[in-house]
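From the methods appendix. Each design record in this collection lists the tokenized structure first, followed by the designed amino acid sequence. Records were kept in a plain field format so they could be parsed without special tools. The example shown here is representative of the layout used throughout.

RECORD:
FOLD TOKENS (585 positions):
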């Protein structure tokens, strides 16, 4: 070996030693920086997302600087789509590039590195098959190195008992158009061990935040009110429905306040106090729900059922109680109305039966027809006949209600009907039932022909006119109104029929409920005005069979009411001479 060759080998040896020393220095610096980043993230409590983002940002920047890469990115798996995606923060990639950096599970370099937990050195992105599959050139990537992000779980003796792969750490484009070498790959491996802990903590924190947000959104969207009272008698959670129930103003935060200060309902406060003081029920013991009545800002009463349960931690330590408020206002109202309905129907059935029984008994006892003359007997027969008709109408109404509830619909017998003539007949019959009211018919034009069911439309007028008489105890004028509504682009030519009275009127709350089954207005004395509460429900069903509608108008108590019905002048398309049209809903 010549002296020149020996000198050249010595120079190469010195250069290699210098290179090794430089790499060892970079490794030591990288480990120190990574540990510093890890300690920054591992504070006394979980860092807020902004702090965690800043920690990861410093980590990828330092990693890129240490391996002299132009780009550095953390790639993790989407739990829902199972795709690998580049997450923020990254170094050297724009937000738009990060958004489209997604790799299907098992595909490309990232898929291989993640699934097999192996490293990969990319020499040329334009010729590498896996890089082409991953479309790396679209991100201006020429070369790169990939290492798996792995969390190692160790036992008390510091032995590895489990390895968990959480993602991939990748660096791209060696600076100064150089190539990544084996030392760069080993360096990135060592960096990834510390980086994985930071990323895993960040992922865990984000998942906790996401789960918490999902839980909060779920609780907020519940139709039932939810209230959590902690062991210190303060509000721990209160969803939107519960805030609405107890009138918490928008923008006010009840969390942390004493429950008695927020609830402001004596019955509810008393129940909560009792539930807090009593120990949790024995397993299997039935706890009956409580009920409270809450009056809102419109002075409307709502009934809520309270389901209460004690909340305990894993150590069985008491954490407070949770209460669910279910709105059962309609259920209780229907129960009350059904009870009243049975009583009312019994009375309504007995009303025509009583005179029928009385007059028939008198006629039977007069065996020789000596007590009553021919005129009086005829009057008895007419009264019996009228009460039979009244009983028949009531039974028909009950049968029709049953048909509507079952979705069977109403049987319609379509024909051309002179509505004024039908209205005059109804008015004539109703005049015989009152001596306090003046009943008139106002049609314009005088004759309005419509394709309808004569019996059904007269039933509508009977029900509305009967209500007008009942709820005008002091008498007054009652007018049956008939008008033609011209066709528009939205609806065909229609008929408008109304009944206007000068009676008690309706409140704004009553206007909303008119047409509900069993509903009778609180205005006045129900027992005195009578009625089953199904008349307007039937009217609503009949109008639905016509593809029409019914609505009331009233300026308030004591100012009378007008009930309007509107339906097409000609029967709905497809209607036969005898057809059943579903009026359910």
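DESIGN:
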């Amino acid at each position: 070996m010549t002296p020149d060759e020996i000198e050249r080998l010595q120079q190469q040896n010195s250069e290699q030693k210098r290179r090794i020393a430089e790499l060892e220095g970079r490794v030591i610096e990288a480990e120190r920086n990574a540990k510093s980043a890890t300690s920054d993230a591992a504070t006394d409590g979980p860092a807020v997302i902004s702090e965690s983002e800043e920690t990861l940002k410093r980590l990828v920047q330092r990693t890129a600087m240490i391996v002299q890469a132009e780009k550095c990115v953390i790639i993790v798996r989407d739990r829902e789509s199972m795709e690998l995606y580049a997450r923020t923060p990254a170094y050297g990639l724009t937000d738009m590039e990060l958004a489209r950096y997604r790799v299907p599970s098992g595909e490309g370099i990232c898929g291989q590195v993640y699934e097999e937990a192996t490293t990969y050195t990319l020499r040329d992105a334009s010729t590498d098959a896996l890089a082409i599959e991953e479309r790396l050139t679209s991100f201006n990537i020429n070369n790169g190195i990939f290492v798996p992000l792995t969390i190692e779980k160790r036992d008390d003796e510091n032995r590895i008992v489990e390895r968990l792969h959480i993602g991939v750490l990748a660096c791209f484009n060696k600076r100064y158009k150089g190539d990544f070498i084996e030392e760069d790959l080993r360096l990135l491996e060592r960096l990834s061990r510390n980086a994985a802990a930071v990323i895993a903590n960040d992922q865990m924190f984000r998942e906790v935040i996401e789960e918490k947000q999902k839980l909060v959104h779920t609780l907020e969207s519940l139709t039932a009110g939810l209230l959590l009272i902690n062991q210190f008698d303060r509000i721990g959670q209160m969803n939107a429905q519960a805030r609405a129930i107890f009138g918490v103003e928008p923008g006010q935060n009840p969390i942390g306040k004493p429950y008695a200060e927020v609830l402001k309902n004596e019955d509810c406060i008393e129940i909560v106090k009792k539930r807090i003081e009593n120990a949790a029920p024995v397993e299997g013991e039935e706890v009956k729900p409580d009920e409270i009545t809450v009056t809102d800002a419109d002075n409307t009463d709502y009934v809520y059922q309270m389901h209460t349960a004690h909340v305990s931690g894993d150590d069985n330590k008491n954490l407070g109680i949770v209460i669910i408020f279910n709105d059962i206002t309609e259920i209780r109202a229907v129960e009350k109305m059904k009870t009243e309905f049975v009583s009312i129907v019994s009375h309504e059935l007995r009303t025509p039966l009583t005179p029928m029984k009385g007059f028939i008994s008198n006629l039977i006892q007069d065996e020789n027809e000596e007590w009553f003359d021919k005129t009086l007997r005829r009057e008895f027969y007419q009264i019996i006949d009228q009460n039979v008709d009244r009983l028949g109408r009531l039974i028909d109404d009950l049968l029709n209600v049953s048909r509507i509830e079952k979705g069977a619909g109403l049987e319609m017998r379509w024909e051309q009907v002179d509505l004024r003539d039908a209205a005059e007949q109804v008015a004539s019959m109703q005049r015989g039932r009152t001596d306090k009211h003046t009943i008139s018919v106002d049609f314009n034009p005088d004759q309005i022909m419509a394709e309808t069911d004569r019996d059904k439309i007269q039933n509508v007028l009977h029900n509305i006119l009967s209500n007008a008489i009942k709820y005008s105890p002091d008498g007054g004028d009652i007018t049956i109104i008939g008008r033609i509504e011209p066709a528009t682009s939205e609806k065909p030519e229609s008929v408008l029929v109304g009944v206007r009275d000068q009676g008690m009127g309706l409140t704004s709350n009553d206007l909303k409920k008119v047409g509900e089954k069993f509903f009778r207005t609180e205005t006045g004395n129900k027992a005195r005005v009578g009625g089953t509460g199904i008349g307007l429900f039937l009217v609503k069903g009949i109008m639905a069979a016509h593809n029409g509608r019914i609505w009331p108008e009233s300026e308030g108590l004591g100012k009378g009411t007008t009930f309007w019905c509107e339906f097409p002048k000609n029967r709905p398309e497809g209607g036969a001479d005898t057809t059943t049209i579903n009026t359910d809903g």
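APPENDIX NOTE: Residues 34-48, 524-530, 574-585 have pLDDT under 50 and may be disordered.
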